[in-house]
Write a structure and sequence with these properties.
Layout lengths: L2 H4 L2 H11 L9 H12 L4 H11 L3 H10 L11 E6 L2 H19 L5 E3 L8 E6 L11 E3 L2 E3 L4 H12 L15 H8 L7 H10 L4 H13 L18
Parallel strand pairs: 1-3
Antiparallel strand pairs: 1-4, 2-3, 4-5
Helix pairs in contact: 2-3, 3-4, 3-8, 4-5, 6-7
Bound molecules: FE2/S2 (inorganic) cluster (FES).
């Protein structure tokens, strides 16, 4: 397949609209790479060349970014990306056990795929660093949507449902899409029926646990001290 066949005129148009968001075209690289993943499910050599061409960068500059960030995948992902937090708090509360259970039950290790990549019901497993939801540990994400307070059993049921082609609702946040759909959103493109989509997201984004500190402070009349203005050092001084 040629690059023009992989990246259709519609994708080129989207790429140009991403570039137009920024004063300098090179600033568009991160969302451009998400756009590439929305097409191919990973960043291929064609994807690197496409970004370099659209942004006037060298292949080496694009590759350096792709290989730095773990959200850019060099191998094709499954229909769903399952990310299990195994950082300290989640690990202590069961994250390691969840990862081990999924790995054993579905026969895959880190960044390996059960099923044919991209085919319905295929999943790619990975263990990841803190997902910024420690108050709801242990957590995992599917295509970056949260499933809070998991157990090895609930996580295995969730992934088995994904393998059957189902899309169980996340605990909060946006409705579950597939990996390519999530990548398109990360590139800044949302479903056509944006109003309905946003109302669903708005309805389920807050977790009581996350707001507990704010609620306690409100009930007890606590406020944060006002920070004094600290003058910034002059540019060029130590
Ligand atoms: S340690 Fe898992 S979300 Fe922070």
């Amino acid at each position: 397949m040629t690059r023009a066949q992989v990246f259709s005129s519609e994708i080129v148009e989207k790429a140009r609209s991403i570039v137009a968001r920024y004063p300098q075209s090179r600033s568009a690289l991160l969302p451009m790479l998400h756009l590439v993943q929305s097409v191919q499910g990973h960043v291929s050599q064609e994807g690197i060349d496409f970004c370099a061409e659209q942004l006037g960068l060298s292949e080496a500059e694009v590759s350096a970014v792709v290989t730095f960030y773990t959200m850019y995948k060099r191998r094709p992902c499954g229909e769903h990306l399952v990310s299990v937090c195994t950082n300290t708090l989640c690990a202590a509360l069961g994250g390691d056990a969840i990862y081990a259970r999924l790995s054993e039950q579905f026969g895959v290790g880190h960044e390996e795929t059960a099923g044919e990549p991209g085919e319905p019901g295929s999943i790619t497993l990975e263990h990841v660093e803190c997902l910024a939801a420690c108050d709801l540990a242990p957590v995992l994400q599917v295509n970056y949507e949260y499933y809070d307070k998991q157990t090895p059993e609930s996580a295995a049921e969730l992934v088995a449902a994904l393998r059957r082609g189902e899309k169980p609702a996340p605990t909060r946040g946006a409705p579950l899409s597939d990996f390519k759909g999530a990548e398109l959103q990360l590139a800044g493109f949302f479903p056509e029926d944006e109003e309905t989509y946003r109302s669903e997201v708005d309805g389920r984004s807050q977790a009581v646990e996350t707001l507990r500190g704010a609620a306690l402070a409100r009930d007890r009349g606590w406020t944060a001290p006002v920070m004094e203005d600290v003058p910034l050092p002059e540019v060029g001084t130590k």
